[in-house]
Amino acid sequence: MTNPVLVEVLRGGVVESRHRGSIVVIDADGGDVLSLGNVAAPVFPRSAIKAFQALPLLESGAADRFGLDDAAIALACSSHNGERRHVEVARRMLAACGCDEGCLECGPQPPEREADKAVLARMQGRPARIHNNCSGKHAGFICASVAMGVDPAGYARRGHPLMDAVIDAVCDMTGAPFSEDLCGTDGCSIPTFAVSLASIAHGFARFGTGTGLGPERAKAAARIRAAVAAEPFMVAGTGRFCTRAMTVLDRRAFVKTGAEGVFTVALPDEGLGMAIKIDDGAARASEVVTAAAIEAFLKLAGGEIADLVRPQILSRNKESVGEIRPSEALLKALGAS
Amino acid sequence: MTNPVLVEVLRGGVVESRHRGSIVVIDADGGDVLSLGNVAAPVFPRSAIKAFQALPLLESGAADRFGLDDAAIALACSSHNGERRHVEVARRMLAACGCDEGCLECGPQPPEREADKAVLARMQGRPARIHNNCSGKHAGFICASVAMGVDPAGYARRGHPLMDAVIDAVCDMTGAPFSEDLCGTDGCSIPTFAVSLASIAHGFARFGTGTGLGPERAKAAARIRAAVAAEPFMVAGTGRFCTRAMTVLDRRAFVKTGAEGVFTVALPDEGLGMAIKIDDGAARASEVVTAAAIEAFLKLAGGEIADLVRPQILSRNKESVGEIRPSEALLKALGAS
């Protein structure tokens, strides 16, 4: 099946580019609320399920034992910009469990923003593992390993008790089994395995409500949601979609981006989970679909996130020369739901 | 009509993302050699027609009058990385016609590569207009304005004699008229107007062969081709597709990227022009289609550009975790042509 166009990119009055994809909204009992495009095909969730991957950090007792605050817990499920505060909190997490940057197995990556790259260069620094957008997740993995009483070395690979616990948590949340045939390696070298978009969405409905989870897991999920709502900067950073959306929406929405055009949302009060995948992997499109869907399901009539629903395209002289917008097909489906 | 999938992105053994698009190959007489997807729809050619936009630089006599060498002429039709040598040549072009960086109307942009950003920051510099990937094109516009005897100020806007000459050259090469309704503004603030992919391809068949062009225009086109073949670094830079492809292929192929998934090719010896547009605007996909098409039409049996046809996807630890590849539909169409 060919997925519908969900997002259009305009320059002047002309549609310059188009993004196809799929979106599914599921309630906590697994009921199908909205489904557009193929939502049964396997999708690598990538970083969009970092909150599930952070569950062992809480469940192992590491967060309490090492005194991890909201900022650290939020960073453990972040794809951060590598800004000063992100780096500081990641270092603090590692120090708290007796480790350091050398224990990170995520590989080096430059900070996301030009300003932070320039600060690093002026200090004669080089992009390092600690700047990797996944360094908080990896620091959390290391804390959890130590709390579990196992040597963190090799934590990024299957067969290590920490990574096995992480995979178990993801399988439990999505209800989808781990499949060898659908397993790949993420950009930060941990395993990622493809599951249906519908099962990812169901996982986020359960993450937002606790429905169907054991008491410890439900408590861990609630603590992660509270931490991210309290520290939305830590989950992404300056100017980023997740930070901007959750700064406005607070506890009403938990949102998380993943590479290759994946996005996930939990709307706890509505008891809903969403998952989005853009066929071509474009983040600019997954963001617009996510914003439009949140606006519709939270019934935001005041334009609270209007700039995320229809972001402007600027020239290098900062003139608006176009915009990215939800397609008619998407708006119609959201309006009917 | 729905365009076919031309490119697949694999992670492990799983197709993670897909890119749809269209490709057309036209001979110098306008004959249709290959057509896949909708090639009649209007497409903004963006930077993929910088060679056409550079014709007035040659035809005005500016190149001779200001002593512009191959490096400068190549830079005038480049989307460059803002590396040291790109910046030096752009400054030299501006100085040659009595102007400076302050005359550039393209807006500021950071250099493309992390290493060049770091050098700039360590020198306490800031991203400026001269680092804009279009600064060579704009420097060429300024040189041509001076040679035409008009004040360069405002050269980026329609109504200025230079920009009117640039638009005339583009219309002449593509054979497509300028349409007010299909006009937008490019990232560097000059007008861009959408024409069919087929007319862009026909323009590059004529650019590569001179067929149907007046003698002065044919001479200018040949000089641009020779300059870019002699200085492929200037047209893009370290690690970039256009530079890598033309370093290997020399005068056998003239290739140029444009924003939003556009690519153009002239194969002078074969008398062919190509144009590619990826629906979603992804450069990683337009590059793979371009490489696969060049490999097919130049009958490259030795894997000369194999790494451009199937680029590897690396983790932050530099492990190969996937690849980008031409789709079966694309390979079949290329094989049949």
Q: Quaternary status of these chains? A: homodimer
Structure class of chain A:
alpha+beta
Largest sheet of chain A: 8 strands, antiparallel
- Return residue spans of chain A where pLDDT drops below 50 for at least 5 consecutive residues: none
Number of domains of chain A: 1
Query: Would you tell me which CATH topology of chain A applies?
Result: Beta-lactamase
Count interface residues per chain for the largest interface: A-B, 56 and 56 residues
Q: What is the CATH-assigned architecture of chain A? A: 3-Layer(aba) Sandwich
Instruction: Report the sheet-strand fraction of chain A.
Output: 15-25%
Order of helices and strands of chain A: EEEEHHHHHHHHEEEHHHEEEHHEEH
CATH level 1 class label of chain A: Alpha Beta
Distance between the termini of chain A: 22 Å
Organism (chains A, B): Methylobrevis pamukkalensis
Pfam families (chains A, B): Asparaginase_II
Protein name (chains A, B): L-asparaginase II
